[in-house]
Amino acid sequence: MSTSTTWQKSSFSGGNGENCIEVAQQEGFIVMRESDDPGLIITTTPAKLAAFIQGVKAGEFDHFTG
């Protein structure tokens, strides 16, 4: 990853960032990583991320956190 990548995390990540997934946009793709393992990066498209976020908002993945 480029050193100029600006990573963003949710304000819900916790005060120390212990529950932190960071997201950035790079060369037309969306990249995601865990703050405690920044070398492991997942790459997806904006459309796929948008579909996933819609599913999260609809509660389709709530059973993973319960």
What is the number of beta strands? 4
Helix content range of the residues, please? 10-25%
- Our Rg estimate from Cα atoms comes to 13 Å
For the largest beta-sheet, the strand count, sense and barrel status come to: 4 strands, antiparallel
Number of domains: 1
Give the termini separation: 33 Å
User: Mean pLDDT across all residues, rounded?
Assistant: 89
Strand content: 25-35%
Helix/strand order: EEEEH
Summed up, the helix count is 1
List low-confidence stretches. Answer: none
Alpha-beta classification: alpha+beta
Biggest sheet, spatial arrangement of strands: 1-2-3-4
Shape, principal axes of CA atoms: globular
What does the model show?
It is a single chain. The protein has one helix spanning 46-57; strands spanning 8-9, 21-26, 29-34, 37-44. It has 66 residues and is an alpha+beta fold. The protein has one domain. The longest helix is centred in the last third of the chain and has 12 residues, at 46-57. The radius of gyration is 13 Å and the shape is globular. The mean pLDDT is 89.
Compact overview of the structure:
The protein is of the alpha+beta class.
How would the blueprint of this fold be written?
Layout: E1 8-9, E2 21-26, E3 29-34, E4 37-44, H1 46-57
Antiparallel strand pairs: 1-2, 2-3, 3-4
Structure keywords:
single chain; 66 residues; alpha+beta; 4-stranded antiparallel beta sheet; 1 helix; 18% helix; 33% strand
